[in-house]
Amino acid sequence: MTTFEIAKKYVELCKAHQNHVALETLFSKDVVSVEAAAMPGAPAELRGLSAVLEKGKQWMANHEVHSASVEGPWPHGNRFIVRFSYDVTNKPSGRRMQMDETALFTVEGGKIVREEFFYPTEG
Amino acid sequence: MTTFEIAKKYVELCKAHQNHVALETLFSKDVVSVEAAAMPGAPAELRGLSAVLEKGKQWMANHEVHSASVEGPWPHGNRFIVRFSYDVTNKPSGRRMQMDETALFTVEGGKIVREEFFYPTEG
Fold it and tell me: In the β-sheet with B95-108, what is the strand arrangement from edge to edge?
């Protein structure tokens, strides 16, 4: 698959709430996942598909998703950008929040080898 | 200015249709600008602020802008992403088109040193 085909498949699976299928089929087992900032108890950078799958599982366990939208992909060479908008309630805190972020993906050898999440971390 | 401050200033100037002011004040004179694909008569990659200013001038001369929106910025370290949506008519062809693209900017030494535009170039 070309980068754009992988990108479109990724967005299609996310829209169908099959994010874990996207991870299992489109990502390299050596994928590196980088947040814009470290969170309490979670480093900014994770290495390896199992760590990334676990991060997704934890996030789903800790959030109630009221609505979600995925826009894109926008490709450029072996990279592509996707936008995510979520309306969620964080279960531990009970706090409802609107998340709006973009992610930059890098493809090598037909697999996503890097995902980087972009969002404000300061005022 | 931090990367996020530069990013917010960039978006603010674009929203005010002051793109040339953004270029002149926020960009390095050695900026590199990379399109997702080369266009007829225009290489994908341009180097230097004067070439980038000229590209913008040519684009404005060749397009009638009916509406434009700029969303973001979404920062991550020394980079940020912005989304552009345009409804324009290409003057030479008379063709009206909706453009929806994202751009990834890289900041070094307090100036934008690289801009990369993301959009589909294949079906």
Answer: B45-47, B27-34, B111-118, B95-108, B79-90, B63-76
Contact list in B for residue A36 (CB cut-off 8 A) is 75-77
CB contact (8 A) between residue A75 and residue B118: yes
For chain B, positions 55-114, list CB contacts with chain A under 8 A: 72, 74-77, 79-81, 83, 100-102, 104
pLDDT, one tens digit for every residue, chain A (123 residues)? 999 999 999 999 999 999 999 999 999 999 999 999 998 778 999 999 999 999 999 999 999 999 999 999 999 999 999 999 999 999 999 999 999 999 999 999 999 999 999 999 976
ipTM computed for the complex = 0.95
A 4-23 residues inside an 8 A Cβ radius of B: 4
